Amino acid sequence: MSASTQPKIAQDDEIEISLYAARKKIYPRAVTGLFAKWRWFFVWLTQAIFYGLPWLTWGQRQAVLFDLEARRFYIFGLVLYPQDFIYLTGILVVSALSLFLFTAIAGRLWCGYACPQTVYTEIYLWLEKLFEGDRSARMRLDQSPWNLNKIARKTGKQLAWIAVGLWTGFTFAGYFTPIRELGQAVLTWELGPWQTFWIFFYGFATYGNAGYMREQVCKYMCPYARFQSAMFDKDTMIVTYDAQRGEPRGPRKKSAEPQALGLGHCIDCTLCVQVCPTGIDIRNGLQYECIGCGACADVCDEVMEKMGYPKGLVKYSTQNGMEHGWSRAQMIRRVFRPRVLIYSSILLAIVAALGVSLWLRVPLKVDVIRDRGALARVVEMGRIENVYRIQLMNASEEPRELRIEVQGLPGIELASEPVVHLLPTEVRSVAVRVQVPPGQPSGTHPIEFHFRSTDGKIEVRERTTFLVPR
To answer: Per the database record, which ranges form the 4Fe-4S ferredoxin-type domain (predicted)?
Structure first.
């Protein structure tokens, strides 16, 4: 078309350009096979831990409880306080490095098997299949007009989805409020505002993400899909399609010889696309939307078995392995490459440091503050007295009997009760009077408090100063 014959657009005409493509609903086909069994194994494992952990007891309390109101975190026999924030930081660093290490070795297997989004999507898809049938039945149901059958199936599915979402929200709140008390509050309609908010908020998030957003979360909301390329290399295990063996693709009869037809082993059945939870075609190569679930490998193996071809047209492999035709042993040897060794070394060092720190952690927190209301005063017999406010925190679930001693100046002694009794996990403030004989030089002098448990298991030293007036 010449320039003179092209249609002209008026200067005042407005053209609307959409920056977002309309979402096309994905109907994943159910699949069986080795990797499907592994996915369901992790579904059961992760949900048994998540739903069951709050109901476990440790002594007279919930085994795992993050009591924000009391500012105590209970993890089985370990009691952590806000002052132990360094351990939370260490756990987050270990989790991040573990993710980097695992991704460098095995790609997005976390996404495909154990990520909460994947796990709950599997559960919600199973419920959808239970009420609406398999892929073709769901597509027909959505395209059919509304009738009693469609209303009943859709309503049943929605009620099941809501029930799972609310139970998930209730369990989540049970990690922060004792779950048995929370259950009693639900039954008696005595939920507090924050418990109500988090139960419904987390329940709604589960319902919306797993029921409707599904692959949209993985493709657009999760940042992991975007920065995974920084952790991948050509020796990272990914789901791959063997193009040399599969191309050119095309349909044929089972009895036909692909070589005679000039075809590869791929029969272009598109089942690998139909089972994909994110709706991609693995035959187009590595894509950031791929979560590494292996569903396409399972269904392709079924097709290859029916056609009488070798399995593994779609499989877990590496780019180098596919390009050079490496065996599994050769690919495994490439696991121990510099990137993996660096990640492993840093991770082991941090885990060791964190473990040693927890092992050596003293379950007693002490903070000594001089009383600002009475810096120094002269008492009977000309002795000089300072008053200190001592904050004691018993970071264990055992009662403690502490003996307080002080040293640092000639003749220094406690003028108050030297023994303090602490209840389990008790936080207590104690006023302590310290005296020295007259004749001390004026100014501030360093002194040291010693806190010893009577059973000899704990000893803590805290330095402060003693003020002698002029």
So the answer is: 257-285
